[in-house]
Write a structure and sequence with these properties.
The chain contains 10 helices and 17 strands. The protein is α/β, with parallel strands linked by helices. Helix 1 packs across helix 2, helix 2 (20-36) packs across helix 4 and helix 2 packs across helix 10. The protein binds nicotinamide-adenine-dinucleotide. Nicotinamide-adenine-dinucleotide (NAD) binds next to helix 3 and strand 11.
Length: 337
Protein backbone atom coordinates (compact mmCIF):
# COMPACT_ATOMS: atom_id res chain seq x y z
CA UNK A 1 0.00 0.00 0.00
CA UNK A 2 1.29 3.47 -0.88
CA UNK A 3 0.67 6.69 0.99
CA UNK A 4 0.82 9.65 -1.39
CA UNK A 5 1.92 13.11 -0.31
CA UNK A 6 0.80 16.37 -1.94
CA UNK A 7 2.90 19.30 -0.82
CA UNK A 8 2.06 22.99 -1.24
CA UNK A 9 3.56 23.13 -4.74
CA UNK A 10 1.82 19.95 -5.91
CA UNK A 11 -1.56 21.27 -4.72
CA UNK A 12 -1.12 24.72 -6.22
CA UNK A 13 0.13 23.19 -9.51
CA UNK A 14 -3.00 21.02 -9.59
CA UNK A 15 -5.26 24.03 -9.08
CA UNK A 16 -3.38 26.12 -11.64
CA UNK A 17 -3.39 23.37 -14.26
CA UNK A 18 -7.14 22.91 -13.93
CA UNK A 19 -7.86 26.65 -13.53
CA UNK A 20 -9.07 28.01 -10.19
CA UNK A 21 -12.71 28.37 -11.22
CA UNK A 22 -12.81 24.87 -12.75
CA UNK A 23 -11.21 23.45 -9.61
CA UNK A 24 -13.73 25.26 -7.38
CA UNK A 25 -16.61 23.95 -9.50
CA UNK A 26 -15.28 20.37 -9.27
CA UNK A 27 -14.82 20.72 -5.52
CA UNK A 28 -18.35 22.11 -5.16
CA UNK A 29 -19.71 18.98 -6.85
CA UNK A 30 -17.92 16.71 -4.36
CA UNK A 31 -19.15 18.84 -1.44
CA UNK A 32 -22.76 18.87 -2.67
CA UNK A 33 -22.67 15.11 -3.30
CA UNK A 34 -21.32 14.43 0.20
CA UNK A 35 -23.79 16.75 1.99
CA UNK A 36 -26.63 14.99 0.14
CA UNK A 37 -25.61 11.66 1.73
CA UNK A 38 -25.40 13.19 5.22
CA UNK A 39 -26.56 10.04 7.02
CA UNK A 40 -23.63 8.03 5.60
CA UNK A 41 -21.19 9.95 7.83
CA UNK A 42 -19.97 9.52 11.38
CA UNK A 43 -19.82 13.14 12.50
CA UNK A 44 -18.70 15.17 15.48
CA UNK A 45 -18.04 18.79 16.35
CA UNK A 46 -14.35 19.49 16.00
CA UNK A 47 -11.89 19.30 18.86
CA UNK A 48 -10.63 22.84 19.44
CA UNK A 49 -8.02 24.15 21.83
CA UNK A 50 -8.09 27.91 22.36
CA UNK A 51 -5.09 30.15 23.14
CA UNK A 52 -4.98 33.90 23.90
CA UNK A 53 -4.07 34.64 20.26
CA UNK A 54 -5.73 31.80 18.36
CA UNK A 55 -6.69 28.15 18.23
CA UNK A 56 -5.82 24.72 16.86
CA UNK A 57 -8.45 22.24 15.73
CA UNK A 58 -8.77 18.63 14.61
CA UNK A 59 -11.67 17.93 12.27
CA UNK A 60 -12.43 14.21 11.89
CA UNK A 61 -15.17 12.49 9.86
CA UNK A 62 -15.73 9.08 8.24
CA UNK A 63 -18.02 7.21 5.87
CA UNK A 64 -18.00 3.44 5.28
CA UNK A 65 -14.92 3.55 3.02
CA UNK A 66 -12.76 6.39 4.29
CA UNK A 67 -11.75 8.24 7.42
CA UNK A 68 -10.36 11.79 7.18
CA UNK A 69 -9.16 14.54 9.42
CA UNK A 70 -7.79 18.05 9.04
CA UNK A 71 -5.39 19.89 11.33
CA UNK A 72 -6.02 23.63 11.18
CA UNK A 73 -5.18 26.78 13.14
CA UNK A 74 -6.73 30.24 13.35
CA UNK A 75 -4.42 33.03 14.53
CA UNK A 76 -5.69 36.49 13.45
CA UNK A 77 -2.51 38.25 14.64
CA UNK A 78 -0.19 35.97 12.66
CA UNK A 79 0.05 38.32 9.62
CA UNK A 80 1.79 40.87 11.91
CA UNK A 81 4.56 38.26 12.25
CA UNK A 82 4.58 37.43 8.53
CA UNK A 83 2.54 34.25 9.08
CA UNK A 84 -0.84 33.18 7.71
CA UNK A 85 -3.98 33.44 9.85
CA UNK A 86 -5.09 29.96 8.70
CA UNK A 87 -2.90 26.99 7.67
CA UNK A 88 -4.00 23.35 7.35
CA UNK A 89 -3.08 19.84 6.29
CA UNK A 90 -5.18 16.68 6.09
CA UNK A 91 -5.12 12.90 5.97
CA UNK A 92 -7.39 10.47 4.08
CA UNK A 93 -7.24 6.80 5.05
CA UNK A 94 -9.04 3.73 3.77
CA UNK A 95 -11.14 1.88 6.29
CA UNK A 96 -10.39 -1.62 4.94
CA UNK A 97 -6.80 -1.48 6.25
CA UNK A 98 -6.87 1.73 8.31
CA UNK A 99 -3.77 2.85 6.34
CA UNK A 100 -3.42 6.47 5.14
CA UNK A 101 -3.66 6.80 1.35
CA UNK A 102 -3.16 10.58 1.12
CA UNK A 103 -1.49 13.25 3.21
CA UNK A 104 -1.95 16.69 1.74
CA UNK A 105 -1.34 20.35 2.35
CA UNK A 106 -4.82 21.89 2.75
CA UNK A 107 -4.08 25.58 3.28
CA UNK A 108 -4.96 26.68 -0.24
CA UNK A 109 -7.69 24.05 -0.42
CA UNK A 110 -9.26 25.28 2.84
CA UNK A 111 -9.79 28.65 1.14
CA UNK A 112 -11.08 26.94 -2.01
CA UNK A 113 -13.48 24.61 -0.17
CA UNK A 114 -14.74 27.43 2.06
CA UNK A 115 -15.42 29.49 -1.05
CA UNK A 116 -16.98 26.54 -2.90
CA UNK A 117 -19.30 25.83 0.06
CA UNK A 118 -20.25 29.52 0.31
CA UNK A 119 -21.09 29.82 -3.38
CA UNK A 120 -22.89 26.48 -3.48
CA UNK A 121 -25.04 27.53 -0.53
CA UNK A 122 -25.77 30.86 -2.21
CA UNK A 123 -26.94 28.98 -5.32
CA UNK A 124 -29.80 27.67 -3.21
CA UNK A 125 -30.37 30.73 -1.04
CA UNK A 126 -29.50 33.88 -2.98
CA UNK A 127 -31.91 35.48 -5.46
CA UNK A 128 -31.87 33.63 -8.78
CA UNK A 129 -30.58 36.61 -10.76
CA UNK A 130 -28.01 37.70 -8.14
CA UNK A 131 -25.07 39.42 -9.83
CA UNK A 132 -23.70 41.84 -7.23
CA UNK A 133 -21.81 41.14 -4.02
CA UNK A 134 -20.12 43.06 -1.23
CA UNK A 135 -17.12 41.60 0.55
CA UNK A 136 -16.15 42.91 3.99
CA UNK A 137 -12.67 41.68 4.91
CA UNK A 138 -10.16 41.31 2.08
CA UNK A 139 -7.69 38.84 3.59
CA UNK A 140 -6.40 35.47 2.41
CA UNK A 141 -9.88 33.99 1.82
CA UNK A 142 -11.29 36.85 -0.22
CA UNK A 143 -10.04 36.25 -3.80
CA UNK A 144 -11.28 32.64 -3.58
CA UNK A 145 -14.70 33.77 -2.39
CA UNK A 146 -15.02 36.13 -5.35
CA UNK A 147 -13.88 33.52 -7.88
CA UNK A 148 -16.28 30.93 -6.46
CA UNK A 149 -19.25 33.30 -6.67
CA UNK A 150 -18.29 34.12 -10.25
CA UNK A 151 -17.87 30.46 -11.21
CA UNK A 152 -21.05 29.17 -9.58
CA UNK A 153 -23.45 32.13 -9.72
CA UNK A 154 -22.03 34.51 -12.32
CA UNK A 155 -21.43 37.31 -9.79
CA UNK A 156 -19.27 39.84 -11.63
CA UNK A 157 -19.75 43.11 -9.72
CA UNK A 158 -18.19 43.45 -6.29
CA UNK A 159 -17.85 46.23 -3.77
CA UNK A 160 -15.00 45.54 -1.35
CA UNK A 161 -14.24 46.99 2.07
CA UNK A 162 -11.44 46.30 4.52
CA UNK A 163 -10.11 48.33 7.45
CA UNK A 164 -6.79 48.12 5.63
CA UNK A 165 -7.00 49.82 2.22
CA UNK A 166 -3.91 47.94 0.99
CA UNK A 167 -5.86 44.67 1.36
CA UNK A 168 -8.57 45.90 -1.03
CA UNK A 169 -5.91 46.99 -3.52
CA UNK A 170 -4.27 43.54 -3.35
CA UNK A 171 -7.55 41.83 -4.24
CA UNK A 172 -8.14 44.24 -7.14
CA UNK A 173 -4.58 43.58 -8.37
CA UNK A 174 -4.74 39.79 -7.95
CA UNK A 175 -8.05 39.45 -9.80
CA UNK A 176 -7.26 41.95 -12.54
CA UNK A 177 -8.43 40.62 -15.93
CA UNK A 178 -10.49 37.77 -14.42
CA UNK A 179 -13.87 39.20 -15.35
CA UNK A 180 -14.87 40.66 -11.97
CA UNK A 181 -15.37 44.41 -11.60
CA UNK A 182 -14.20 45.28 -8.08
CA UNK A 183 -14.78 48.73 -6.59
CA UNK A 184 -13.30 49.86 -3.28
CA UNK A 185 -15.89 51.09 -0.78
CA UNK A 186 -15.17 53.65 1.94
CA UNK A 187 -17.13 51.74 4.61
CA UNK A 188 -18.93 48.44 5.16
CA UNK A 189 -22.21 50.36 4.96
CA UNK A 190 -21.34 51.80 1.55
CA UNK A 191 -20.18 48.38 0.31
CA UNK A 192 -23.44 46.56 1.08
CA UNK A 193 -25.88 49.19 -0.21
CA UNK A 194 -28.11 47.61 -2.87
CA UNK A 195 -26.14 44.37 -3.38
CA UNK A 196 -27.69 40.89 -3.70
CA UNK A 197 -25.10 39.05 -1.59
CA UNK A 198 -22.93 40.16 1.34
CA UNK A 199 -19.87 38.14 2.33
CA UNK A 200 -18.19 38.87 5.65
CA UNK A 201 -14.67 37.45 5.96
CA UNK A 202 -13.08 39.42 8.77
CA UNK A 203 -10.71 37.94 11.34
CA UNK A 204 -10.84 39.75 14.66
CA UNK A 205 -10.81 37.46 17.68
CA UNK A 206 -13.68 39.45 19.17
CA UNK A 207 -17.43 39.99 19.05
CA UNK A 208 -17.71 42.53 16.24
CA UNK A 209 -20.88 43.80 14.54
CA UNK A 210 -19.58 44.07 10.98
CA UNK A 211 -23.23 44.01 9.84
CA UNK A 212 -25.98 45.81 11.76
CA UNK A 213 -29.74 45.58 11.08
CA UNK A 214 -29.89 48.98 9.33
CA UNK A 215 -27.53 47.61 6.62
CA UNK A 216 -29.73 44.64 5.69
CA UNK A 217 -32.11 45.00 2.73
CA UNK A 218 -35.01 42.70 1.73
CA UNK A 219 -33.83 39.78 -0.41
CA UNK A 220 -30.17 39.92 0.67
CA UNK A 221 -28.22 36.72 1.14
CA UNK A 222 -25.57 36.99 3.86
CA UNK A 223 -22.57 34.67 3.67
CA UNK A 224 -20.81 35.10 7.02
CA UNK A 225 -17.58 33.08 7.18
CA UNK A 226 -15.49 34.91 9.80
CA UNK A 227 -17.55 34.25 12.96
CA UNK A 228 -16.19 30.76 13.55
CA UNK A 229 -14.95 30.42 17.13
CA UNK A 230 -16.22 31.17 20.64
CA UNK A 231 -16.00 34.91 21.27
CA UNK A 232 -15.47 35.62 17.53
CA UNK A 233 -18.57 36.90 15.70
CA UNK A 234 -19.36 39.27 12.84
CA UNK A 235 -23.14 39.79 12.84
CA UNK A 236 -25.14 41.93 15.25
CA UNK A 237 -27.51 39.47 17.01
CA UNK A 238 -30.54 41.33 15.60
CA UNK A 239 -29.32 40.60 12.05
CA UNK A 240 -29.74 36.90 12.81
CA UNK A 241 -33.40 37.51 13.63
CA UNK A 242 -34.04 39.07 10.21
CA UNK A 243 -33.92 35.88 8.13
CA UNK A 244 -33.61 32.11 7.89
CA UNK A 245 -30.26 30.95 9.28
CA UNK A 246 -28.55 27.97 7.64
CA UNK A 247 -25.67 26.16 9.39
CA UNK A 248 -23.41 23.23 8.50
CA UNK A 249 -23.60 21.04 11.61
CA UNK A 250 -25.76 22.42 14.38
CA UNK A 251 -23.85 21.07 17.43
CA UNK A 252 -20.64 22.69 16.16
CA UNK A 253 -22.17 25.98 14.99
CA UNK A 254 -23.97 26.52 18.32
CA UNK A 255 -20.48 26.73 19.88
CA UNK A 256 -18.57 28.52 17.12
CA UNK A 257 -20.91 30.38 14.78
CA UNK A 258 -22.58 33.76 14.98
CA UNK A 259 -25.54 31.96 16.56
CA UNK A 260 -23.43 31.50 19.73
CA UNK A 261 -25.00 34.89 20.60
CA UNK A 262 -28.54 33.47 20.43
CA UNK A 263 -30.59 31.30 22.83
CA UNK A 264 -29.98 27.53 22.55
CA UNK A 265 -33.38 27.03 20.84
CA UNK A 266 -32.87 29.74 18.19
CA UNK A 267 -34.14 28.06 14.98
CA UNK A 268 -31.61 27.02 12.35
CA UNK A 269 -31.67 24.81 9.26
CA UNK A 270 -28.84 22.37 8.53
CA UNK A 271 -27.28 22.77 5.10
CA UNK A 272 -27.70 19.12 4.04
CA UNK A 273 -31.47 19.59 4.27
CA UNK A 274 -31.32 22.43 1.74
CA UNK A 275 -28.97 20.56 -0.64
CA UNK A 276 -31.09 17.39 -0.47
CA UNK A 277 -34.42 19.20 -0.97
CA UNK A 278 -35.73 18.31 2.52
CA UNK A 279 -35.93 22.08 3.15
CA UNK A 280 -36.66 24.71 0.49
CA UNK A 281 -33.95 27.07 -0.70
CA UNK A 282 -34.96 30.72 -1.12
CA UNK A 283 -38.72 31.11 -0.58
CA UNK A 284 -39.31 34.60 -1.96
CA UNK A 285 -37.48 37.53 -3.54
CA UNK A 286 -37.76 39.52 -0.32
CA UNK A 287 -36.60 36.81 2.11
CA UNK A 288 -33.33 37.51 3.93
CA UNK A 289 -31.14 34.40 4.12
CA UNK A 290 -28.05 33.92 6.28
CA UNK A 291 -25.33 31.28 5.98
CA UNK A 292 -23.55 31.14 9.36
CA UNK A 293 -20.48 29.30 8.06
CA UNK A 294 -17.86 27.89 10.42
CA UNK A 295 -16.37 25.19 8.15
CA UNK A 296 -17.23 21.53 8.66
CA UNK A 297 -15.10 18.36 8.42
CA UNK A 298 -17.26 17.00 5.59
CA UNK A 299 -15.95 19.77 3.29
CA UNK A 300 -12.37 18.65 3.98
CA UNK A 301 -13.32 15.00 3.44
CA UNK A 302 -14.77 16.04 0.04
CA UNK A 303 -11.60 18.05 -0.69
CA UNK A 304 -9.29 15.13 0.09
CA UNK A 305 -11.45 12.82 -2.03
CA UNK A 306 -11.33 15.35 -4.87
CA UNK A 307 -7.54 15.81 -4.57
CA UNK A 308 -6.93 12.05 -4.40
CA UNK A 309 -8.97 11.51 -7.56
CA UNK A 310 -7.51 14.47 -9.47
CA UNK A 311 -3.85 14.10 -8.48
CA UNK A 312 -3.52 10.59 -9.89
CA UNK A 313 0.20 9.79 -9.88
CA UNK A 314 1.19 13.40 -9.21
CA UNK A 315 1.66 12.77 -5.48
CA UNK A 316 5.00 11.65 -4.06
CA UNK A 317 5.04 8.24 -2.33
CA UNK A 318 5.66 8.97 1.35
CA UNK A 319 7.57 6.58 3.59
CA UNK A 320 5.39 7.02 6.65
CA UNK A 321 4.12 3.46 7.17
CA UNK A 322 6.69 0.68 7.83
CA UNK A 323 6.82 -1.97 5.10
CA UNK A 324 7.81 -5.22 6.85
CA UNK A 325 8.52 -8.67 5.45
CA UNK A 326 6.89 -10.11 8.58
CA UNK A 327 4.21 -7.65 9.80
CA UNK A 328 4.55 -9.05 13.34
CA UNK A 329 8.30 -8.43 13.44
CA UNK A 330 8.22 -4.70 14.17
CA UNK A 331 11.53 -5.16 16.00
CA UNK A 332 13.17 -5.84 12.61
CA UNK A 333 13.23 -2.03 12.11
CA UNK A 334 15.90 -1.86 14.84
CA UNK A 335 18.09 -4.71 13.57
CA UNK A 336 21.24 -3.85 11.64
CA UNK A 337 20.59 -3.51 7.94
N1 LIG B 1 -16.12 29.44 7.68
C1 LIG B 1 -15.07 28.81 7.24
O1 LIG B 1 -15.15 27.68 6.76
C2 LIG B 1 -13.74 29.49 7.30
C3 LIG B 1 -12.63 28.93 6.64
C4 LIG B 1 -11.43 29.64 6.65
C5 LIG B 1 -11.34 30.85 7.34
N2 LIG B 1 -12.43 31.32 8.01
C6 LIG B 1 -12.39 32.60 8.72
O2 LIG B 1 -12.50 33.63 7.74
C7 LIG B 1 -11.90 34.81 8.26
C8 LIG B 1 -10.96 35.41 7.22
O3 LIG B 1 -9.86 34.56 7.09
P1 LIG B 1 -8.55 35.06 6.34
O4 LIG B 1 -7.64 33.90 6.24
O5 LIG B 1 -8.96 35.79 5.09
O6 LIG B 1 -8.00 36.13 7.41
P2 LIG B 1 -6.98 37.33 7.16
O7 LIG B 1 -6.39 37.65 8.50
O8 LIG B 1 -6.06 37.00 6.05
O9 LIG B 1 -7.91 38.55 6.67
C9 LIG B 1 -8.87 39.19 7.45
C10 LIG B 1 -9.11 40.59 6.88
O10 LIG B 1 -10.22 41.18 7.58
C11 LIG B 1 -9.93 42.55 7.78
N3 LIG B 1 -10.78 43.03 8.87
C12 LIG B 1 -10.72 42.69 10.18
N4 LIG B 1 -11.73 43.29 10.85
C13 LIG B 1 -12.44 44.00 9.94
C14 LIG B 1 -13.61 44.81 10.02
N5 LIG B 1 -14.26 45.01 11.17
N6 LIG B 1 -14.08 45.38 8.88
C15 LIG B 1 -13.42 45.19 7.70
N7 LIG B 1 -12.32 44.44 7.58
C16 LIG B 1 -11.84 43.85 8.68
C17 LIG B 1 -8.43 42.58 8.05
O11 LIG B 1 -7.89 43.87 7.81
C18 LIG B 1 -7.92 41.53 7.06
O12 LIG B 1 -7.58 42.10 5.81
C19 LIG B 1 -11.20 34.40 9.55
O13 LIG B 1 -12.01 34.81 10.63
C20 LIG B 1 -11.12 32.90 9.47
O14 LIG B 1 -11.10 32.31 10.74
C21 LIG B 1 -13.62 30.68 7.99
Amino acid sequence: MTTFYLDTKAVSDLVRTNGTETFISALAQFIEEDYRRWDDFTKSARLAVYYPDGLNELMPIADKDHFAFKFVNGHPKNPLKGLLTVIAFGVLSENASGYPVLISDLTLVTALRTAATSALTAKYLARKNAKTMAIIGCGAQSEFQLLAFKALLGVTEVRAFDLNRAAIDRVIRNLDGMGIKITAAASAKEAVKGVDIVTTATAAKAKVAVLTPDMIEPGMHINAIGGDAPGKTELHPDVLKMGRVVVQYEPQTRIEGDIQQMPKDFPVVELWRVFSGAEPGRRSDSEVTIFDSVGFALEDFSSLRCLYGMAGGAGKPLDIVPQLEDPRDLFSLLRDR
